[in-house]
Amino acid sequence: MSLNYLVELKDITWRETIGKKDKPVIVIFYSPSCPYCQQMDSYFELYSKKLEEMHPALSSGNEWAKTASMIIVIFSKEQDDCVIHDIEYYLFDTGMATAFIILRATELGLVAHPIARYSPRKIREILGIPDTMNVIALIIVSKHSENISPILSNSQIEAERRIPERMSLKKFVYMNKYGYLVRAYPCNCRSKWCR
Fold first, then answer.
1. 4 torsion bin: left (phi>0), alpha (psi -120 to 50), beta (else)
2. Which residues contact 85 (CB under 8 A, 6 or more apart)?
3. Other beta carbons within 10 Å of 68
4. Is there a single domain that holds both residue 159 and residue 173?
5. Looking at the structure, do residues 47 and 61 belong to the same domain, yes or no?
């Protein structure tokens, strides 16, 4: 990608420059973060060969990701963002930027699925990312398909059909002090959410 194609936009010029165009674009939003720090590096690989090289870095259970159109690698390091006392902001800021990427991809009609179970070491080797960088997330991006892939396991197929059950908030949301679970404080509103 040539730097000639790199355009920095403000909110005011977004619609005219990008929103009304019919050509594909790569978009990175500034998410809320420290204005003086670079919390996330952006790496773009334009060749499908590199996508295939990434496949050995995906762990068992992620075979479906090998058919994706794009893999976004999110990486950063502590020194790229503020560290105040023992708070490392690079993980928070990078997480927010990652969420914005997923939301924007969804707005564009794409599926952007962050995954676990990959090898950060292999990712760094394949892409030439320095060992000092923390590979924080992989986002698998593609178009949604009405057909369920035969590559998926039975549990993955079931998860595609319905939203998997999550741990109840009552098991990890605390009131006033760590260890005091919300369920210890009964509510009289009779809502199904408070039972």
1. alpha
2. none
3. 22
4. no
5. yes
Q: Which tokens hold the place of 15?
A: 């619609």
- The answer on 88 and 14 residing in a single domain is yes
Instruction: Report the alpha-carbon distance of residue 172 to residue 182 in Å, rounded.
Output: 8
| Phi, psi for 155 (deg, rounded to 5) | -70, -35
Q: What pLDDT sits at residue 84? A: 81
Q: What is the pLDDT of residue 119?
A: 95
Residue 115's CB is within 10 A of a number of other CB atoms, namely: 17
| Count of the separate structural domains present in the chain | 2
Strand partners, 139: 72, 114
Which is it for strands 70-76 and 87-88: parallel, antiparallel or unpaired? unpaired
Chain centroid, CA 173 distance in Å: 24
pTM for the full model? 0.69
* Residues 174, 148 share a domain: no
Which residues of the chain carry a pLDDT beneath 50? 1, 23-24, 184-185, 195
179 in the same domain as 118: no
Cα–Cα dist 98/74, whole Å:
7
pLDDT in the model for residue 184: 47
SS3 (DSSP) at 23 = coil
Strand residue runs (E) in the chain? 70-76, 83-84, 87-88, 110-115, 134-143
Range of the domain at 88: 3-164
Question: Alpha-carbon distance 39 to 47, whole Å?
Answer: 26
Between strands 70-76 and 134-143, the pairing is: antiparallel
